[in-house]
Specification:
The structure is a homodimer. Among the domains of chain A are: about 170 residues, Sulfite Oxidase, Chain A, domain 2; about 130 residues, Immunoglobulin-like (Sandwich). In chain A, strands 8-7-16-11-12 form a 5-stranded mixed sheet. In chain A, strands 9, 10, 13, 14 and 15 form a 5-stranded antiparallel sheet that branches. The longest helix of chain A is centred in the middle third of the chain and has 8 residues. The relative contact order of chain A is 0.16. Chain A is globular, with a radius of gyration of 24 Å. Chain A is built from 7 helices and 25 strands. Chain A is mostly beta strands. At the A-B interface, strand 3, helix 1, strand 5, strand 7 and strand 8 of A face strand 3, helix 1, strand 5, strand 7 and strand 8 of B.
Chain lengths: ~450, ~450
């Protein structure tokens, strides 16, 4: 019987029983799969053992009546630092970014209050009773829809990440920026979205069979518009009206947005007010200038819709620290705009050896997958990395591979708020020193 | 080719093409499955057709810079009525309930801010740096854990509903109470929970192989304690520290709670401060008095842990109304403490005929499953019902069947806030009149 199987009344394991699968203390993921979780004595370093452990029965909160139940609950005051990082806190007349603090979160759902937002012209306060979506252009009959009429359709519910094309842009810097995972990679979030398949609405309007493109436009003052292939509309596009069970957050497109699972964030047009069916791309400002990706040599891709396979470790990561040698879990997020995550490997020795992490199922297409790898830190320096694979055969590149393809920033980058380029997806490396402090490194 | 398949450039369907599967206008769920969604012309009544539909380009929010991006976002002011219903808004010295407004929500995740809460002694403000969980009793070595040490374990993520044993208790009333779905059935919610398998912690403490019970106790002033079979701990119990991606809400057990998927809510002990391993049930106040279910004849079950298979329609439902005849979606929530939902049937004629609803996948064990059934309302009276089946072979009873087994309230019940009895799970019936107004009926 494996020492990793569930054991009632088991005694402590000594370290020699650990099933090491890769260098520097990575432990067999099978410890996590199915129901054979028990890492028992092996995890003894994580549990605060105490021969005379006694419950704390005289804490103030055990002796006093607590607070009144509110109509809407909020996080504990002790969680006050779990907030998004803002690029424009005073609302100057420029784009405002708010980044999800992934290093402080767990699981796969991003709480809606912490979903990343990018707004080019502030956050509009839209009256859903007045807002309408119009579908027109190359259709038999133009149609208009309100939040109320969309609610009458059979709605579809699915998990999906949305990621800004500029997420992780700070990683184009020639030297690694010292910033937490949420500042480096916080322009991606994951929600349960509910809405009407766009194909249903296009069919109802009677789309011209020859039409190949749509242009989707938002109702805020930025009037962001993007061209979308009709093929995507008939694949998995939704007009979303719920986010994690409730109507959309204002910064995420209230009262309705386009959801194009796996496509770059700005194409998921928020505050959606029209979809015009056309016969060629619109070549709008936002697709020819703002969201173009510059290639080495100065050319750009005309379009690069799909967000590539990617992962990053959230625990441990920059800004957190290890207090003592012992057992830890290395945990993070993986996703791919192509499909499902098929595998995540983790290294604790800077890529010299890799072990396969446990994936938390069910694994959704084009959505976050949480990976977990048990790890025994021996108190010596270590470099932690994760590498994601998807079911389309794509592999997250090493940084050197990525830089060879896409280049680095040509000007100095001093802040993770900068956008020297887009569509960055290489692995991220966290170096743990012998004090347990964590730095961002290129390895 | 089925008229329900996706059709580019299709023309309107006339009503005779609708594939009716049950009385009073229920439409084949296959319209919803896979990618063959298009209900096209059939849904014409839902889309506001307009020969000259034009985008609204001069709305105030299209002309003005919007609001500054906040560190934490909140719902639109237009969503101010999407709140929980409170039983004790002034915080009098008694139990406080807050019910989830299911009739205003979509999808399957309950936003954490709207998760139901029941607190017997207010909501404690617990300092996670001081709080600890002790596992002791029949163990080789007592252990204590903090939020920080639990965070070092390999965590498990899963969807699960939590339901109060007293949810839907108003349905024991002899006459149907006129109240929205959230008041009748709002003591159940569904979240993504992340935590440490309890089996890992028990193995680490070295549980006595002969031990059959645990007693779990909360740290708030109510000191709620419940006996839990060790078998459940080794099945799927978690010590949960994240709810929908962030640390637990204060009303839901911050900083840590027991999660016993499918077991009645109060056993999922919040503010968990100790688990004592014992050799018989504790027969605590909360399990022998407060959460006992009275049977006809006056006896009670000793224990009734598992929440039975159940469903209710959220759209349309009491408090909503149908503005005109035409196409609608009948949608609701189904779940079972035994396992996965295998089927939900829907009736629009008070149970005379039933059609099978589409289920939104993936279908999680012991978690909400959203069902959807397209429906053409002809403007005549209708009685809408849903009936859930689970993969354990259980079927949600009709109300008459339920009452025959469990009886009705023996005293008048005038409010859905009352608790005449517990573990109510029959079908709920919404009657639509010819004006489109909706009442709660027993049918």
């Amino acid at each position: 019987m494996s020492p990793w199987r569930r054991r009632r009344g088991a005694s402590s394991l000594d370290d020699s029983a650990l099933d090491i699968v890769a260098g520097n203390g990575l432990i067999d993921r099978r410890a996590l799969l199915g129901r054979g979780f028990a890492i028992a004595g092996a995890a003894g370093a994580a549990g605060m053992t105490a021969a005379a452990a006694e419950p704390l029965i005289d804490a103030p909160w055990s002796r006093e009546v607590g607070a009144v139940t509110p109509p809407v609950q909020s996080p504990s005051p002790f969680e006050k630092d779990v907030v998004r990082a803002l690029s424009n806190p005073n609302g100057e007349f420029r784009t405002s970014h708010a980044r999800t603090p992934h290093q402080l979160l767990g699981g796969t759902v991003t709480p809606s209050r912490l979903h990343f937002t990018i707004n080019h012209c502030g956050i509009p306060d839209i009256d859903p009773a007045q807002h309408k979506l119009v579908i027109h252009g190359l259709v038999r009959q133009p149609l208009e829809f309100t939040l109320e009429t969309l609610s009458r359709y059979p709605l579809v519910t699915r998990m999906a990440f949305v990621e800004c094309a500029g997420n992780s842009a700070g990683m184009f810097a020639k030297e690694p920026l010292q910033a937490p995972a949420g500042l480096l990679h916080g322009l991606v979030s994951n929600s349960e979205w509910t809405g009407v398949p766009l194909s249903v609405l296009l069919d109802e309007a009677g789309i011209d069979p020859a039409a190949k493109w749509l242009v989707a436009e938002g109702a805020d003052a930025a009037m962001l518009d993007r061209s979308v292939p009709v093929k995507k509309a008939y694949d998995d596009a939704l007009v979303a009206i719920y986010q994690n069970g409730e109507h959309l957050m204002p910064g995420n497109g209230y009262p309705m947005r386009l959801l194009l699972p796996g496509f770059q964030g700005n194409m998921n047009v928020k505050f959606l007010r029209r979809i015009k069916v056309i016969n060629q791309p619109a070549y709008s400002y936002f697709e020819t200038k703002n969201y173009s990706q510059i290639l080495p040599g100065g050319k750009t891709w005309r379009f690069h819709f799909v967000m590539d396979v990617k992962s990053f470790i959230t625990h441990p990561s920059f800004g957190l620290s290890l207090k003592e040698p012992g057992l830890y879990a290395i945990s993070g997020i993986a996703y791919s705009g192509t499909g499902r995550i098929s595998k995540v490997t983790v290294s604790a020795d800077g890529g010299k050896s890799w072990g396969e992490a446990a994936l938390q199922g069910p694994i959704h297409e084009k959505a976050f997958t949480r990976f977990v790898m048990p790890w025994r830190w021996d108190g010596q320096p270590a470099v932690l990395q994760s590498r994601a694979y998807d079911d389309g055969g794509n592999v997250q590149p090493l940084r050197a591979e990525f830089v060879a393809m896409r280049g680095e920033a040509t000007k100095p980058v001093t802040t993770p708020l900068a956008f020297p380029n887009q569509h960055y997806n290489s692995i991220t490396s966290w170096a743990v020193d012998s004090q347990g402090e964590i730095k961002h490194v290129y390895a």
